[in-house]
Amino acid sequence: MAEVYIIGTYHDFQKDDGSLSNHQVEKFKVFLEDVCIRKGIQLIAEEMSLEALGPLSNRGSSCKQVADKLGLSHLYCDPNSAERKRLGINEQDDIWMDNFYSGNQPQVAVKTRIDEELVKRRKFWLEKLHDVNRCPILFICGARHALPFRGLLIRSDRTCEVITDRWLP
User: Fold this and answer.
1) For residues 144, 31, 29 and 15, what is the CA-based torsion angle, rounded to 10 degrees?
2) DSSP label of 57
3) What is the mean pLDDT of the chain?
4) How far apart are CA 120 and CA 84, in angstroms?
5) Contact partners, residue 35, CB within 8 Å, separation at least 6
6) Up-side HSE of residue 29: CA atoms within 13 Å toward CB?
7) Strand 137-142 vs strand 160-164: parallel, antiparallel, or unpaired?
């Protein structure tokens, strides 16, 4: 049995902000419930912060709603803007704008900087999971992070399994 199970998806399914049909979000929640039951999940963690949820923070993400429904622990793992500043993590949009105003570096250089910032964020998630004593954990993240985060977990001696790296209804 793995310590961490990973589901990669699109943040619209996590936010449930009305940009998708209720049917699509409900399918995501049912999928999460099924995984939690089949894998004996003790904690649902996700690449999300209350700040990122904005006005939806009072009801929580769809992942938090599933955790509450199943009586599981839940953890938002993504750093908010104050934590990003403290950790020196730059936003992708800021990197592109900095590039635009500083003389347009080659696109490859900008993408390299963005990748470096993503590595910092993934390490932050890993640290958050290290503070948790509940396993197995279901970790939900953006589709582009599922496989790199798996690699980071493996390098830190955590057993893990990617359930899907790009969940869609």
Assistant:
1) 10
2) G
3) 88
4) 9
5) 5, 7, 41, 138, 163
6) 18
7) unpaired
Residues facing residue 142 across a β-bridge: 9
Interval 123-134: pLDDT, tens: 999 999 998 888
CA 12 – CA 1 distance, rounded (Å): 29
Name which of 18, 51, 16 is nearest 32 in CA terms: 16
Residue 41 contacts by C-beta under 8 Å, 6 or more apart in sequence? 5, 35, 72, 136, 137, 138
Domains recognised in the chain with CATH numbers: 4-80+125-164 (3.40.1010)
Cα 23 to Cα 139: distance, rounded to the nearest angstrom: 22
Q: What is the pLDDT of residues 78-129, one digit of tens each?
A: 999 999 899 878 776 665 456 555 666 666 565 767 678 889 999 999 999 9
Nearest to 14 by CA among 47, 55, 37: 47
